[in-house]
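ok trying again, last paste got cut off:
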Amino acid sequence: MSPQELIRRYCIALTGGIATGKSTVARMLRQLSYPVIDADQLARQVTAPDSPGLKAIVSRFGNDVLDDEGKLNRPLLGQLVFNDERARRDLEAITHPLIKAALLTEIERLGLNEDPRLCFYEASLIMETGQERAFRSVWATFCTPSLQKQRLMQRDQLDQIKADRIISTQMPAKEKADLADAVIDTSGDIGLVAAQLDSLLSREG
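nice, full thing came through this time. structure:
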């Protein structure tokens, strides 16, 4: 079975808006011994110093995106693409194919091609990049907009205006939830989240 086919048959994409509890659910899945591959970690891997990905980013955005140690200055790069649609698309054109290739490599590294079993891919951008059909299904985390903003403000030490700006640049969490195959509402306590997760996992057999 090819890695692509394995992903389609066994890998569930876990997505959701910023600060809606995606990382919390991913941590719970790991505690239940399910393999969870983190797209953010893959992104760091493909833009490591001296990597082709980082060289391509520097070629497009200049040496200013590097810190004093020659590593990618992610906050600065984020600022550069935050309100520049063309720059954001250029960045995605560089990183997304590399992350996809890294995902296939990680599938093999984990031995999932030799021992296929249910696994998860934690990623913010699934619907936005048209990847829904590449996976067994798509689960989305969701919470009320007011709670999402509150969590973001607390997590990143932001004021209300900055939090609103960040949330407004992303696909609404409700829209992601509507497009997903399953939704995990994280508005309640951790016990309620665990119960939803248990129910969903039971359906997967």
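cool. The longest helix spans residues 85-109. The longest strand covers residues 11-16.
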